[in-house]
Amino acid sequence: MPSKKTNxxxxxxxQKIPRDKHPISRKDISENAIKVLYRLHKGGFDAYLxxxxxxxxLLGITPKDFDVVTxxxxxxxxxxxxxxxxxxxxxxxxxxxxxxxxxxxATFRGPHEEDKTKNSNVSRTNDEGMILRDNVxxxxxxxxxxxxxxxxxxxxxxxxFAIYDFVGGMADLEEGVLKLIGDxxxxxxxxxxxxxxxxxxxxKLGLRxxxxxxxxxxxxxxxxxxxPAARLFExxxxxxxxxxxxxxxxxxxxxxxxxxxxxVLKMPLKDPASIEYxxxxxxxxxxxxxxxxxxxxxxxxxxxxxxxxPMLARANEISQEASFTEYESxxxxxxxxxxxxxxxxxxxxxxxxPMRDIWILQLRLTQTAPRKALRLLSHPKxxxxxxxxxxxxxxxxxxxxxSLAAFWTKMQAExxxxxxxxxxxxxxxxxxxxxxxxxxx
Length: 441
What we know:
The chain is an alpha+beta fold and 441 residues long. Helices cover 47% and strands 10% of the residues.
């Protein structure tokens, strides 16, 4: 049962850190963010930098983006900026566009009081307490307590260049601890993705998750089942494609968060000696190493590694149930694995199709006849399939796989002029023209 919701705003005491007491300088802030802040300020509105950008600047980290918060409504923001568009239904936001650079502007959030409004377009939650609609505006103090973690509730004021702290975020940042604002269980129920964010922030920033935030996670992990699959794909990228994949995997696995993310993994990844655990751990290790070396990574390859053994088990089941060839069994098992995974984390086709190619190539790479081998070198996904073969050989330690990997390594060295053929773009189907009915005479 969800915890009882308290809509009253907790009493807050503001701590003002003047310019000479903190390291943030305007030269470290995006030029476009500065433009937005000053125009809002000159328009008679309050304007602050808030969230991760302030936190990262205090830690000496270059922020990826800069978020602005104001007492102006989204419609008032749009009146100030011609290059503005309003987005979102759950949270109404203004995006100020400077070419590819987008500065996100939000209005101060107020306390969520669904029982006092009849307008479901303004405020609405589900039976578990998760916020579905939240366009309630308030003051900066109310906005601060509505944010998730204390270290993300620090405000940099363009009017006096001071930092305003309403919830003890500066002290927590100095102590190296990650705390939720308010009752942790209630905050997780409002937005279960906060459990993933807690893990990601802790590993990224080297913070310790406070016990009050850590303890409810295993019991509430199932709430991730209600999160849209497309949103969890974005979280997947943030968690596993940012250079901290191994650390995030270990903490997620410890707290039971891998199961709702990957329901196709029938067995929990509890045993570090198991083949499934070693494959996932090695894939994340390789991903971190590639990112640290400045190399590109593909989510499709990572999904292929995570789902490989479940797909293989399903292919064996299919081949035993009916007289299908190994190739046909792989094709059907791949479709089943992708379909089941898409219920929790949606995988765009630009990643799911290469993932299936990687799996099928594991069969084709066993064909080492000279003509077939030479032809396979030009397959557009050969390199990904070959890298996956190397990963399998490393994880399984199988002599036959090592021998096969050595064969393809030699083939590439002996045929350096054979380049993979480019992937053919999928042709768009044209809609047939609708014929007009003949005119009545």
